[in-house]
Amino acid sequence: MKLLGGMPLIQYTIESARQSELLDTILVSTDCPEIAAFVNCFDRITAPFVRPAHIATDHTPMIEVVIHALNSAERNLYRFEYVLLLQPTCPFRKPGMIDETIRHVVQQKADSLMTMRRIPDPHNPFWSYTLQNDKLQHVVPDVNRPTRRQDLTATYHRDGEIYIARTSLIRAGEITGGKIAGWLNDNPFEINIDTPADWMRAETLFNQWKDQTKNIFSY
């Protein structure tokens, strides 16, 4: 297990989940016996099944992992209305945000939710292009395109920190769908670790994040 700030990467997500007062059951899906043994050292959280090798590759769609976890959990007599997905590659969640998103999806009577951030105006889809055969094509075609920044419609992107979906949606093969609620994330320590450069940035962010959460999390 790779260490970030002296702690296994997955532990940041474990600690965030354990702080929640609204999560009924906290399960970890892994194909790694070492990670499973580590997870089972914590209260309120367990790794009760092993993820099969065929859905434990770098190219496995996340929905397949979630469906397997849901089916495995329900074979152990768990029953859920919603699944909340936390990916360990987003280690620096804001304290309390898990319960805030749960309350929001319930209040909105939504089928799914994702945390999101506003797309900076220079990268707004109305001003973006694809390049095909040396020819530029508008990402958003055939609209009255604003020419001034002040006239742009605000647009948002998912940031990967939290997804919530009804179990019926998961069984239909979707993590987001139906009535989708958005939760605007103002966490200043946004990071989704996917490359060595992301890891280096996470190491830089760690001390700042730790200073803000030292009274909540133990290290």
UniProtKB/TrEMBL annotation:
<protein>
    <recommendedName>
        <fullName>N-acylneuraminate cytidylyltransferase</fullName>
    </recommendedName>
</protein>
<dbReference type="InterPro" id="IPR003329">
    <property type="entry name" value="Cytidylyl_trans"/>
</dbReference>
<dbReference type="InterPro" id="IPR029044">
    <property type="entry name" value="Nucleotide-diphossugar_trans"/>
</dbReference>
<dbReference type="InterPro" id="IPR050793">
    <property type="entry name" value="CMP-NeuNAc_synthase"/>
</dbReference>
<dbReference type="Pfam" id="PF02348">
    <property type="entry name" value="CTP_transf_3"/>
</dbReference>
